[in-house]
Write the C-alpha cells for this entry.
Amino acid sequence: MTKNPKTFSLLSIGQRGVGKTVFLAGSYAELNADKPHDFWFDCQDTEVQTNMEKILSHVARTNLYPPATIKITSFNFSLKRDNLFGKKTLCDFRWWDIPGESCDIRNPDFQEMILASHGCCVFINAHSLLHDAEYNKSLDEVFHQVVAIASLVSQHRIKYAFAIILTKCDLLEQSTVTQLKIEQSLQPLISRLDAVKANYQKFYSAIPIVSMEGVAALRARGAAEPLLWLLAELNKHHHFLAQQNLANGLSQSLFIGQVLSPQIRRYILVLSLVSVSLLGIFSSLLFAFGFFNLSPEQLPLKEQSQSQIHKSGIAH
Ligand SMILES: Nc1nc2c(ncn2[C@@H]2O[C@H](COP(=O)(O)OP(=O)(O)O)[C@@H](O)[C@H]2O)c(=O)[nH]1
Ligand SMILES: [Mg+2]
C-alpha cells in the first residue's frame, strides 16, 4: 500500500446532456469489468457506488441510457493497481459534475471549484458539433472558459491538464471527412490552447449500448482512457509538489510566501476571463476573415493511443 496517495480534483465542464454521466459510468464499467484489469476504480463513497450500479443495471434491464434523474454530482475514486506485491492505490481523485447552467464564471461557487482543481475534463458533443448550429454558438462560452483557465495556468506556470472529450462519436459516420470536420470546428479552441502551450489531449468517446447474448450493456472499450491520461499527467507533474492546485499555484507565483484571500484569487480569475473573452472576440474576427484556415494536410489525424498511457507516469 502506498502511504498518502495524492488526491486530485478534476473539474468537468460541459452542458447538460453532453454525456458526462454516461462517460463516468462507462469509465467505471470498463475498469471494473469482470476480466482482470491492470487498473480499476474503487469508489470511496457507498452512495456513489450504489448510483453507478443503478446506472449499469438500468442499462441492462431497459436497453436504454440512464435517465437524467440518476445523478452523480461528486465522485470520489481511488485508482488502484494490482501488481506482484498486491494492490496499490495510485491516487485518489475527486470529480465534480457541475450542472451546465452553473458553469458560469460569474458564479462564485464555480470560481472556487476552478481554483481548487488540478485538471479538467471538457465535454463536447461531437454529434451536435457537426449538426447543430445553435450548439456551436453556445460552445463559444465553453471555449472561453477553457481558454481562460489555460491562460491563467500558463501565465503562472501551474501544472494542469485538460482532457477534451468528444462525446457520442458512435453516432457519427467513421470517416476521415468526419474527423476533419471535427478538427476544423475545434480549431478556435485548439489554436488558442496551443498559443498558451496548454497541456491537453483530445479523446473521441463512443459509449453505445450493445446487446450480447441478450444482455444489454454500455460498450465501454477505451472509455476510461481520458481519465487515465489525466491522472497519469497529474501524477507525473505533481511528483515533487505536494497537492498544488490552481489556487495555491497562483498564490505561489504571484505573492511568494503570502496567502491570497479568496476574494483576490477570484478577482484574478475573473480578470483573466475578461481579458480572454476580449482576445476571443479578436481571434473570431481573424477566423471570420480566414486568417487561420487550415488545409487538410495540416490537420492532425491520429490521436494518442492507449499504449502511450501505459508509457506515461501512471503505469509505473
Ligand atoms: N449514442 C450515444 N449516446 C450517448 C453517449 N453518451 C451520452 N449519450 C446520450 O446523451 C444523453 C445524456 O447523457 P448524460 O450522460 O446523462 O448527460 P449529462 O447531462 O452530461 O450527464 C444520454 O441519455 C444518451 O441518450 C454515447 O457515448 N453514445
Ligand atoms: Mg448527468
User: Anything to note?
Assistant: The beta strands are 6-13, 39-43, 74-83, 86-97, 119-125, 161-167, 200-204, 209-212, 215-218. The chain has ten helices and nine strands. The first strand starts at residue 6 and ends at 13. Residues 291-316 have pLDDT under 50 and may be disordered.
